Amino acid sequence: MTDALPPGSTIGILGGGQLGRMLSVAASRLGYKTCIFEPAGDCPASHVANFHLKAGYDDAEALARFAEATDVITYEFENIPTDALDILERHRPIRPGREALRVSQDRLVEKDWLADLGLTPAPYADVPDRAALDDALARIGTPAILKTRRFGYDGKGQARIDSPGDADEALGSMNGAPAVLEGFVAFQREISVIAARGLDGAVACYDPGENLHEGGILRRTTVPAAIPHALATDAVLLAARILGALDYVGVMGIELFVTDSGLVVNEIAPRVHNSGHWTQNGATIDQFEQHIRAVAGLPLGDGSRHGDIEMENLIGDYSDALPGILADPAAALHLYGKAEARPGRKMGHVNRRR
Amino acid sequence: MTDALPPGSTIGILGGGQLGRMLSVAASRLGYKTCIFEPAGDCPASHVANFHLKAGYDDAEALARFAEATDVITYEFENIPTDALDILERHRPIRPGREALRVSQDRLVEKDWLADLGLTPAPYADVPDRAALDDALARIGTPAILKTRRFGYDGKGQARIDSPGDADEALGSMNGAPAVLEGFVAFQREISVIAARGLDGAVACYDPGENLHEGGILRRTTVPAAIPHALATDAVLLAARILGALDYVGVMGIELFVTDSGLVVNEIAPRVHNSGHWTQNGATIDQFEQHIRAVAGLPLGDGSRHGDIEMENLIGDYSDALPGILADPAAALHLYGKAEARPGRKMGHVNRRR
User: Domain ATP-grasp spans what residues (chains A, B) (predicted)?
Assistant: First the structure.
């Protein structure tokens, strides 16, 4: 507890979306204040945070002011500009640290790094140009997905290639951004592990959840995943290896494919993760508090699960579903305070006890 | 759902303490904004609310502005001045309604009202003057407690009378405030029922908890209370009778004594209640969300309990207890963001799964 932030300290959070919102609530439970750095006004996190510094990531003066007003800095998204991180780090510790951001900000770097660690990413190839795409398609085959190396999320910056004839259009849709080709994995299930590592090096994992994606967006997570115990153990060991190699502090979401030949790492996210939202109603310490505990230097919760939960995202206009959710005694609703329900936008989620 | 507040609406909360804080968090989960009315700056609720209107209850202009900025008004304490309520009610509905406040703001009115309803309050007598106190002591006996009729909480405004010789000092300590004498009840246990009534008249109760008070302050609540099922049913029926008679909307805390001759009503509080804090970690919909659902016109949760919980208040300086709480995997910590840990001050609570 010697490095622990005392109650009343301020945790800075980069990003003001729903993850920042739920991190702020968790921080308040532990007696911490929060300051959100987010260019957009009326953002979800600003509703529940103590302070909202509304400025852009190119505003060096605002970044310095933000850092000075906080005791430690964390984030809800990984695509933070390097220059901004450089400024912030001069003033305050950033947790999770820079190495986790370096690895996860670039799909190619991430896959190389995972392979170097002895883990199995999906088949992939660097696509700096058209010739490389042809080589990659020849090696990986179709169908495959071309993705920008940086700044993709929720299926954005991606183009599916069903046959070599799609290559031109797919590459064109990258708008000249460096890309990586990923092969499809013949998986039985998609699962994810929400893992945490404390400042003291202790690791705690929640039980793996089973994910259902639709159109590149997570639709549903069910815990426990219907996998053998030995495989769940493999997933936890794999997570611990990743966190240890990064000297990681905080919560990480690790998406995995379960295949006939074992676990394939789909991607890692150095932050709380949508597939861990079930912990709010299925664990004593949820992923948001777990992350705050880690970055504040407090001991981690052990992650034990006290119920079987199905988490369902509310995407776009959810108004027709609302009466049924509110009338269901097993359902816990979590809305994000977003004014406009655009198609594909995550508006909230529901955790149902099964 | 026709009278339901849509997400994005603003709930006004009178009072900025820990109950307002946890009500604000619950409102945020349902997509509502909150506006706190509280004279004190840096109050617990202001850390997590959207807006904090810092003004006094005698500021008519501020009260009107507060009401205009909200869609419905609720409160975290019952001692709101009548003049302020009159102003607020001209603009927006106040839930729970005025009758609940009228009854609960005055111990004598409350006891008369409960007796008229056919329920059993503790032995009591009106003490307008010294002669009445002598009569009351002759009838009720000692030990007894003299309490101010209004504005008492957490053991404040109370004086114990162990023998008639204590009468002068006890009456003097009331500082001329109208008082009521209460006899001691020979109880087996203290329990409380956290009950809710929706705008549609539906009633939902949580399982009764067993309370331990020390020095007039709640120290611990354990659920379920170790009482026969029939007695728990009595408590729920009694709660429903109180809520129905008041045409109540919201959560109410009802403190009861279990005696050899049945249940005696100690007091009612027209708000979320300290003895219901266990619901945060033992029920899918906690008392704070239940209250927000009621005042927002949403359907109530059913109140079902999914675990056995012991809630312990953290009173005064809790720093020595903090490492043990954080290291206990069964413990969920809830701090209130208060800067100064004065003796007798509620700083937070812990919910432990048993």
Answer: 111-296
Among the three residues B183, B198, B225, which one is the final residue of a domain in this structure?
Answer: B183
Q: Does B338 show up as a binding residue in the annotation?
A: no
* Residue B98, marked binder: no
Interface list for B 271-310 with A (CB within 8 A): 281, 284-285, 293, 298-299, 301-302, 304, 306-307
What pLDDT is recorded for position A153?
64
C-alpha angle with apex A338: A256 to B280, nearest 5 degrees?
Answer: 70
Q: CB within 8 A of A293, min separation 6: which ones?
A: A30, A196, A198, A285, A299, A300, A301, B326
Q: Are residues A160 and A290 in the same domain?
A: no
Identify the domain containing residue A24 by its residue range.
Answer: 10-94
CB pairs under 8 A between A and B: 91
Domain check: are B194 and B277 in the same one? yes
pLDDT tops 70 at residue B278: yes
pLDDT in tens, A111-170: 999 999 999 999 999 999 999 999 999 999 999 999 999 976 666 789 999 999 999 999
Which residue is it, tokens 């609960």? B104
What is the ipTM metric for this complex?
0.94
Residues B243 and B347 in one domain: yes
A317/A202 same-domain check: yes
Q: Does B329 contact A8 at a Cβ distance shorter than 8 Å?
A: no
CA distance A100 to chain B (A): 26
Do both A260 and A300 map to the same domain? yes
Residue of A nearest to B283 (CA): A281
Interface probe for B, chosen from A47, A277, A318, A340 (most Cβ of B below 10 Å), is: A47
| pLDDT tens track for B33-89 | 999 999 999 999 999 999 999 999 999 999 999 999 999 999 999 999 999 999 999
Is A98 an interface residue toward B (CB < 8 Å)?
A: no
Q: What is the pLDDT at residue A237?
A: 96
The residue behind tokens 């963001």 is: B337
Low-confidence ranges of chain A (pLDDT < 50): none
Contact B323 A47 (CB under 8 A): no
Q: Contact A303/A145 with Cβ under 8 angstroms? A: no
B204 shares a domain with B59: no
